[in-house]
């Protein structure tokens, strides 16, 4: 055995294994990293120094390796059985094409027909067609997830028709292509312009003098049409005019791009007898519908079958 030098300020010595110095514990001085005295045999005044941890380094390296191997967000992980991609060995698609378009398989090699359309069940075994995404349906009866369109707004097709979504337009185009025809393309977002049409025309009325009656008319068009009323009596008279027993009321709806209008007459007089016309007008055209008001003096004059 040999004597160990006494510890004191400014004295440093090698540990027994000769790898790292041991630093005396002094005021305000931090111990160095290395091997030092361990256990009860450490001289007084010397701070045992622990070895640098190795496990955190291994964990960090493993984490970096996992992040490097992880597929990007939105990508379907390739199957463990995926081998080299050989397109010549891929199965042929149907001769008439795919009803919902085509997508790559899980290995990203072969084309295959998309298995799920809009509002159809989706999951690992049924991938959504192009333009669709698989969305969960929590708390609802039926499938737990269905394919929904990524763009959920109406679009105008090159065929002049309005489609509720770009996905419906794409489905119509694919259907036309399978028939050997040219399918529609998207002209713009939003509904196509269209001339006015009469949704609900006014109805014929028979009533006695002094009664209160009304005519109604519902029209639609894009842009939303302007609705007016005329009385046809040799010449068209724009209503209400100067009639104090007649009022016109108009409001939007009940659906988008629709307008509903009323002619209110109270009290009814002989002068109100005649034909009334509902007219809808916008930049794409106009539409009209008419109905007749017949005024009688007594109820027994009203025929049981109208028009007689």
Automatic annotation (TrEMBL):
Upper taxonomic lineage: Eukaryota, Metazoa, Chordata, Craniata, Vertebrata
Coiled-coil regions, chain positions: none
One Gene Ontology term of the molecular function aspect: insulin-like growth factor binding
PROSITE patterns in alphabetical order: IG_LIKE, IGFBP_N_2, KAZAL_2
Pfam name, any one: Kazal_2
Biased composition (Basic residues): 179-189
Record-annotated Kazal-like domain positions: 129-194
Record flagged with keyword Disulfide bond: yes
Listed GO CC annotations: extracellular space
InterPro entries documented for this protein: Growth_fac_rcpt_cys_sf (IPR009030), Ig-like_dom (IPR007110), Ig-like_dom_sf (IPR036179), Ig-like_fold (IPR013783), Ig_I-set (IPR013098), Ig_sub (IPR003599), Ig_sub2 (IPR003598), IGFBP-like (IPR000867)
Domain IGFBP N-terminal: 78-150
PANTHER family hit by this protein: INSULIN-LIKE GROWTH FACTOR BINDING PROTEIN-RELATED (PTHR14186), INSULIN-LIKE GROWTH FACTOR-BINDING PROTEIN 7 (PTHR14186:SF19)
Subcellular location: Secreted
Disordered: region residues: 178-198
Major localization class: secreted
Name this polypeptide is given: Insulin like growth factor binding protein 7
GO biological process: regulation of cell growth; regulation of signal transduction
Keywords for the protein's UniProt record, in alphabetical order: Disulfide bond, Glycoprotein, Immunoglobulin domain, Secreted, Signal
Residue stretches making up the Ig-like domain: 196-294
Keyword Hydrolase found: no
Classification via CDD domains: KAZAL_FS (cd00104)
């Amino acid at each position: 055995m040999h004597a160990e030098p006494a510890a004191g300020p400014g004295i440093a010595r090698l540990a027994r294994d000769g790898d790292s110095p041991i630093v005396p514990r002094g005021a305000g001085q931090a111990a160095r990293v290395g091997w030092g005295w361990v256990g009860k045999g450490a001289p007084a005044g010397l701070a045992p120094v622990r070895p640098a941890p190795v496990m955190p380094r291994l964990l960090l390296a493993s984490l970096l390796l996992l992040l490097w191997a992880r597929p990007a967000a939105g990508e379907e992980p390739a199957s463990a059985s995926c081998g080299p991609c050989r397109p010549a060995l891929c199965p042929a698609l149907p001769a008439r094409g795919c009803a919902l378009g085509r997508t790559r398989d899980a290995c990203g090699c072969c084309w295959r027909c998309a298995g799920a359309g809009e509002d159809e069940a989706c999951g690992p075994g049924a991938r959504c067609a192009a333009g669709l995404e698989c969305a969960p349906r929590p708390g609802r009866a039926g499938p737990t997830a269905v394919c929904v369109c990524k763009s959920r707004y109406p679009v105008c097709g090159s065929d002049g028709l309005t489609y509720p979504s770009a996905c419906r337009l794409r489905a119509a185009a694919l259907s036309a292509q399978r028939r050997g025809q040219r399918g529609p393309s998207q002209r713009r977002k939003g509904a196509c312009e269209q001339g006015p049409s009469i949704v609900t025309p006014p109805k014929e009325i028979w009533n006695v003098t002094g009664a209160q009656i009304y005519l109604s008319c519902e029209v639609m068009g894009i842009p939303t049409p302007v609705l007016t009323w005329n009385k046809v009596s040799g010449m068209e008279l724009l209503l209400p005019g100067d009639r104090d027993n007649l009022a016109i009321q108009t409001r939007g709806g009940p659906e988008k791009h629709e307008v509903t209008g009323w002619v209110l007459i109270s009290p009814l007089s002989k002068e109100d007898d005649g034909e009334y016309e509902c007219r809808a007008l916008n930049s794409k055209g106009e539409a009209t519908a008419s109905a007749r008001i017949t005024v009688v003096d007594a109820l027994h004059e009203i025929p049981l079958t109208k028009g007689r």
